[in-house]
Amino acid sequence: MRVENYGKSAATATDRVEILRGITDLKSNDIVIFYVGVNEAGVGFTQRDVPVQLIRKLPELSTALQKASSYSRIADVLFRNLVFGGVSVTDESKDNAVAQFDMALREAETLTQRSGARFVPILQANLFTKTPRSEYDRDLGSMYGSELEPVVVDLYARMIGVVKSFELSGDATDVMNSLKVSPYFDWHHVDVNGNRQIARYIFDLLLDRNLLK
């Protein structure tokens, strides 16, 4: 069995579909896994244009913005909100985010099935899906202010329905609950123990779906 990782920083499901289009050697015994949710939630934020004049006057902000953008979509959004006040969240932006998510997963399944392979979308864990949360978790979450958690929770509640509409899907949102020590570095990146939990969940899911031979 061989595992290949085609992920990239800040990639949404739409970005992953673009990558999938370029993979020409899928076979009937292959499994395509989309471990998604965090960056897709970032699509729910509506971003206004960053003032170019300000970037020119403060080039260090441009560098910081680029770093934030490469780190994750949400990091980019929060940075814009902090510096420019250029972020808003509306029902329309959340509806659009879920619609894009659904469309991307449907296309990914179509591309996968053309090769006879199987498509497995999994909704990923994050700090705000962990229960119970330790004092460390609560302090970490508070660093992001009051905007992030309710939007992510709302979007996840919408996205889980999309994910579960696929026959070979998974919900990994509670995989960190059993860890005694929080694995989170920030609201979604985890340490080696967290990554081990994710790997075990995916392996067990594939076994349960009779996808491993």
Question: Could you describe the 3D structure shown?
Answer:
- This protein is mainly α and 213 residues long.
- It has one domain.
- It is built from 9 helices and 5 strands.
- The strands form 2 sheets. It has a 3-stranded parallel beta sheet with strand order 1-4-5. A two-stranded antiparallel sheet has the order 2-3.
- α4 (59-71) runs antiparallel to α5 and α6 packs parallel to α8 (148-164).
- The longest helix has 24 residues, at 91-114.
- The chain is globular and about 45 Å long.
- It starts with 12 loop residues before the first helix and ends in a 5-residue tail after the last helix.
- Mean pLDDT is 82; it is low at 46-62 and 82-86.
Task: Record keyword descriptors for this entry.
single chain, 9 helices, mainly alpha, three-stranded parallel β-sheet, 213 residues
In summary, what is this structure?
This protein is mainly alpha-helical and 213 residues long. It has helices at residues 13-21, 38-42, 52-57, 59-71, 73-84, 91-114, 135-142, 148-164, 192-208, and strands at 31-36, 45-47, 87-89, 118-123, 170-171. The strands form two sheets. The chain has a three-stranded parallel β-sheet. The chain has a two-stranded antiparallel sheet with strand order 2-3.
